[in-house]
Amino acid sequence: MRFPVCLAGPPEVVQYGPAHHGLGGVREEEYVLPDLWAVHFYSYLGELSVEGVTVPIRPGSVSAIPPGARMRFRYHGPSEHFYAHLRLPDAAGSRERLRLMDDLARDGGAVRGCFRRLAEASPDAPGRVRAAVWELLWQLADRARAGDSGGGPPGADPVVLAAVRRIEQGLAGPLRVAALADALGVSHNHLTRRFQAELGCTVVEHVRRRRMARAEHMLLNSTLAVKSIAIQVGIPDLQAFNKACRRHFGTGPRGIRGGDRPPL
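Above: the chain sequence. Below: its structure as tokens.
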């Protein structure tokens, strides 16, 4: 079960934090959030029913539930999850989707990292909170699009999909084509050919674009220091990060934040 979602702009995060349920012998709860999306990261076993569809809750899974949907939770005992309640623009016409439930057991490091950054973010830094949640939603949408449970969009190359997921998870560290190919069980040349055929660019170019896209997102939608952003996108040398921004955007990090970008 998937729900359309509009991610054209950052969400309005109304509330977030840990929540405790199943206390005092309560084994079932049902409620509706009329105007808010609910995103939950679970650390317990249970069941979730949304609009007549029931899915298991497992430790490490994430649910995304749209406004107005009736939710019923069944607990096996004291149960804790981390939640974010948020507002998003109307999803009419959007091509992005979020799964009702996404199991992060496979390749879920990037999403878990988003939840970790959200948990560490201070309510006094709303820009950082919005950036963490926006990145989280995009990660979940990317996983839904890639068919992470084994499939993918019709015609999608499974090797390229797996490579793209690993790249997303590893943007903060060094990414070498040879190491990526080894991890996927293919040769360097084979991965390069598959990437070029599927995405129309080299692996190195894709990594560069994704690093710059994530840097732009954090520069525009968070108050993180430029040095911290450079580290998070895998270009820890500040001079190299400045050069990379200038090559890609035509201006440096401070120019991006200040809106000082040349017209396209």
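Residues 126-146 form the longest helix (21 residues).
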